[in-house]
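Lab notebook, entry 327. We have the chain sequence and a SMILES string for zinc ion, and the next step in the workflow is to get a structural model of the bound complex before anyone spends time on docking refinements. Request logged below.

Task: model protein plus zinc ion, output structure tokens.
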Amino acid sequence: MDRYARHLSLLELGPRGQSALAGSSMAIVGCGGLGAATAMYLTRAGVGSLTIIDRDVVDEHNLHRQILFSEKDVGRPKAVVAKECLEAIDGGVRIVPYQRSLDPSSIHLLKGVDVIVDGTDNLTTRFLLNDHSVKHKIPWVYGGAVATEGMSATFVPPGPCFRCLFPSMPPPGSLQTCESAGVLGPLPPLVAAIQATEAMKLVTGATPRKTLLYIDPWQGVWREAELEKQRDCPCCVGGEYPYLDLDKKDMVTKLCDGGKVQIVPSKKAKGLVRALEKRYPQGAVRDDMFVLSVNGIELVIFDDGRALVMGAGEEEAKNIYSRFIGW
Ligand SMILES: [Zn+2]
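Result returned:
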């Protein structure tokens, strides 16, 4: 317990709070700027177990803000690198990494955790998280960081939910993303510090913040607005969870991060990496992924059939995927 001495002497935590942290199980969805930092703070805080779900590999342009990763990690899966880094920080924390995209087929990975921390970069996944949270009464801590502006809110069922705040999906292209607007390097770890604090408060029985927080450290702004439950909210009032049962078609998504396209096939493969290794000697196996370069386009294929395609548009990515996988 020596390493937590400064928590033990903290009035807000003390031995009781620290032991609640040690008995807690948390999940972080998305291990980018926000998720990498919350993972680090929560590991250092001595949580019992931390599930990390991330679909991406480390890119060089992640390094200015994603504080778990270094140059040697470029090209490796974030969830795997995160596990290595976090275990080096505190070997007593159980780290459970998943190289997965969070979608209705993988949402069961979040069953039984005490708190979910949002490190995603898109609204579809947040709507899915919210449906899961309201349905199974699991609190979650939202975070967002674009340009110099950060947001966070803590949603605790049966209180106001994310869809009380954002009732419906805005039209594609109407929201700023890290890709279009950039992001200030120190911003995600700042928002993550707030998210990690809220997660710690939730599992130690403290009262979570009841407001939507907006910060802009560049402008020196910190503002809060009351979260209000909407009487016509389809989710927390109406009990509708449409994002949990999206129809099962192949999902092709352009990722916010670095001109990548992700393909999640409706069918799940097994043993695909070994099969591809035999079929395509020009490719290579790295960290349980099959990596292949074709005319400047890079394909990273996971064992279950999911793929990341770098250097191609959505249509071209789909074509090249079906050319090599045959789906
Ligand atoms: Zn609601």
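Notes for the group: The mean pLDDT is 91. Worth checking against the assay data. The pocket of zinc ion is lined by residues 160-161, 163-164, 230, 233, 235-236 (CB under 6 Å).
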